[in-house]
Structure formats: structure tokens, C-alpha cells
Design brief:
The N and C termini lie far apart (73 Å). The chain has 4 domains: 44 residues, no CATH class; 113 residues, Cytochrome C3, CATH 3.90.10.10; 88 residues, Cytochrome C3; 60 residues, no CATH class. It is of the alpha+beta class and 381 residues long. The chain has 12 helices and 9 strands. Strand 3 and strand 4 form a beta hairpin. The chain is 25% helix and 7% strand. The strands form 4 sheets. The protein has a 3-stranded antiparallel sheet. Strands 1-2 form a two-stranded antiparallel sheet. A two-stranded antiparallel ribbon has the order 5-6.
């Protein structure tokens, strides 16, 4: 009897763990039992009673830097020091290039973003020593970047001692820190790299194409980068922060590009002169007409990058078109009553809409556009 109970208990526990690993994207519609994640009978946003679970698999809601709070006053632990005025929005803007909100808010429910004190206890004498207390959590998040950038981790670099600071006003301190933003990152249109490759020393990278045309997120290439990549207080000149040049190995130089271009030959990128910007007609042999030029790449190629090559036939994408579901007026030609009843392939051989339609199936001496199967109208989009 006891053995059977133990087996059932272990099965229940394993089921709960596996269930947590498969939490659906929409938490509200999850078919999980509340007890899988919550220890109390009625969990609330303020008291979720969460039990340990794989937090990366849970649904999270984060905001853009512009939506976040500007300045935060950290005053829960303020016995010895005055409150720390934390320029939250500036740090949120910087975090875009180094992991996003999850860098600090490493676990969050699907409600409003939780402050650190909701998970980290204020007292050091605690039951669960695997989770840092609030003071340790603050310092673990801040001290690494500040050490790298400023090479200084003195307490007074962030804190004001109550015994030293005379006339300290929290509101004035918040006002002073408010409204600060990280300087806008200037995105280059293209970058030409000079390499030592003998068969082609110039590599042209069209940054604008990758971010705007191909919709590649910044963090795809610029991931987990710290302030030190660009800034260091030891590299000051006329109060302007210098950019640090990094010495990378051959593999490091190619790693980010190879995620999409692993099958390309060296001479595809390494040329003897700067390359021309991407042209769909020259590169693929399929020039985009007025109906396709404004479409995003994903419309035809799907969202997966690198994009796969498509069959250059119209019916590959438009095979479901027929005289009932396609509005021909969008082409600028409104079919007359006779031609509106015909099938597409009667005029467009093999449903190839890229070439001039033919009249030979019905008429011996007719040709388009000399004879038109209707009237010209304004093109609608």
C-alpha cells in the first residue's frame, strides 16, 4: 500500500514539473492546475505564492524603455545611507543591447513588472539562502557593469552617507536624475571593412538593409554586450567617450554572419571594391514589380532567417486565385462581363501573371494590350 502511494506521489510530482516546462504562451488559457505553480488557495498579483519553477518558460511582459518609469528611488534599505536614485529609463535603454529587461527583471509574471523586493527578502537571516537577499540582489545587478566601466566600487559612488550629506533632498535628487536619456545610437547605412583576405580585401555590410528591409533585431548581432564595449572612463578625450576597438579572432569576425551566410563562398562578401546595395532583380533574377516592391520579405519568404529561395512562378504563391476570389480591378483593368467569367489560365498561361496575357485561346487576330478585355481603371491597393 505504502509503495503504491509513493509511486503515485512521484508520478504527480513529475507530472507537475513536466507541466511547468510546457506552460502555454497564453497564461490565462493554460490548462494547468493552479496548484502546479501556486502554493496558496487564492494567489493574487501582490501575493502570487509562486513555487520554484523554470522561470524562463513562463510568460513575461516587458515594456519598451519609453514606457518605463523614469527614475526610481531605492529606499527600502536606507538605514545608513540616503535613498539611491536610480535612473531606470537610461538603464532600460542600455539594456536593449545587453539582454533587455530580463537582465534585471529575470523573473516576472504576466502582470505588472514586479519590483525586486517582491522576491528578495530585506533580511539576511532567511530560510532560503539560495535566493539572495535584497541588498545582495541590488549589488549583484549593479556592481559588475560599474566595476568594468568606472573601475570604482566605493559605496559613496552610488550612496550618500547620512552623516556626510547635509541638506539632502530626495525630491531634488530625483529631479536632477529625471529626464536623462542615453544618446541615440546612430545606425549606419553601410560599413566597409578592410580585411587581409588576398582574393578580396573589402567587405561591405549594408546595416540599413539588415535592420529595415530584412527586419533583423539589433540583439541578433549585438547580444549581451556591456557598456565597456563602447565606453570606459580611462578612455576619455575632451569629455567624450571613445569607442574601443576590439581585436577579434577570425572565427569571432565571421560568427555573426555565418548564422545566415554559412553556405556562401568567401568571394560572395570579400570583393576588390565596395559592393552594391541589395537588388532583388539582380540577385535573384526576379525583379519586384509595383505589387511586390512594398511587401515585406516575410510575406513571401516567411519569418525564418535565412530566407529560402522560392520557385519563380506566380502560382507558387497565388495558386488559389480564380475568377471568384480575385478582384481584377487591382491591376488597373476591369474585365468586361464576358471575360470576368473566364478562368485565369484562359488568358494567363499556366497562371503565370508575370508575362503579358495572351488572347490566342479564343481570338485569332487579337493581342493585348492592343485589344483589351475590359476598360482601364485607377489602380487600387
Amino acid at each position: 500500500m505504502k509503495k503504491g502511494f509513493v509511486i503515485l506521489f512521484l508520478f504527480a510530482i513529475s507530472f507537475a514539473v513536466m507541466a511547468q516546462k510546457n506552460v502555454k504562451k497564453d497564461h490565462a488559457k493554460s490548462d494547468l492546475n493552479c496548484k502546479t505553480c501556486h502554493s496558496c488557495e487564492v494567489p493574487t498579483k501582490d501575493q502570487p505564492c509562486l513555487i520554484p519553477c523554470p522561470r524562463e518558460k513562463m510568460k513575461t511582459v516587458y515594456e519598451s524603455p519609453e514606457q518605463t518609469v523614469d527614475v526610481v528611488s531605492l529606499e527600502t534599505l536606507s538605514k545608513k545611507y540616503f535613498p539611491v536614485i536610480f535612473s531606470h529609463r537610461v538603464h532600460a535603454q542600455m539594456s536593449v543591447m545587453s539582454g533587455g529587461c530580463g537582465t534585471c527583471h529575470h523573473y516576472n509574471t504576466d502582470g505588472p513588472i514586479q519590483p525586486c523586493k517582491n522576491c528578495h527578502q530585506t533580511k539576511r537571516n532567511r530560510d532560503d539562502i539560495s535566493k539572495p537577499d535584497l541588498e545582495a540582489a541590488y549589488h549583484r545587478q549593479c556592481i559588475t557593469c560599474h566595476r568594468e566601466w568606472s573601475h570604482n566600487t566605493n559605496c559613496v559612488s552610488c550612496h550618500s552617507l547620512k552623516t556626510d550629506a547635509k541638506g539632502y533632498q530626495k525630491d531634488e535628487a530625483k529631479k536632477k536624475a529625471s529626464g536623462k536619456v542615453h544618446p541615440a545610437l546612430i545606425e549606419p547605412t553601410k560599413i566597409v571593412f578592410e580585411t587581409k583576405y588576398s582574393k578580396g580585401q573589402m567587405v561591405t555590410f549594408f546595416h540599413d538593409d539588415h535592420t529595415k528591409k530584412f527586419k533583423i533585431e539589433c540583439t541578433t548581432c549585438h547580444k549581451n554586450e556591456t557598456c565597456l564595449k563602447c565606453h570606459d572612463v580611462n578612455k576619455l578625450a575632451d569629455d567624450q567617450l571613445k569607442i574601443i576597438k576590439a581585436n577579434k579572432s577570425l572565427d569571432e569576425h565571421h560568427k555573426k554572419c555565418f548564422s545566415c551566410h554559412k553556405d556562401d563562398k568567401c568571394v560572395t562578401c570579400h570583393l576588390t571594391k565596395p559592393a552594391e546595395q541589395f537588388d532583388h532583380g539582380k540577385k535573384t533574377g526576379w525583379a519586384l514589380n509595383k505589387f511586390h516592391v512594398k511587401l515585406s520579405c516575410e510575406k513571401c519568404h516567411g519569418a525564418k532567417i535565412p530566407y529560402t529561395k522560392l520557385v519563380s512562378k506566380c502560382n507558387n504563391c497565388h495558386g488559389a486565385w480564380n475568377n471568384e476570389n480575385f478582384k481584377h480591378t487591382i491591376t488597373g483593368l476591369q474585365l468586361n462581363e464576358t471575360h470576368a467569367q473566364l478562368n485565369c489560365e484562359d488568358c494567363h498561361a499556366e497562371n503565370n501573371f508575370a508575362v503579358k496575357p495572351g488572347c490566342g485561346n479564343c481570338h485569332e487576330n487579337y493581342s493585348f494590350p492592343k485589344q483589351k478585355p475590359g476598360k482601364l481603371v485607377g489602380s487600387k491597393k
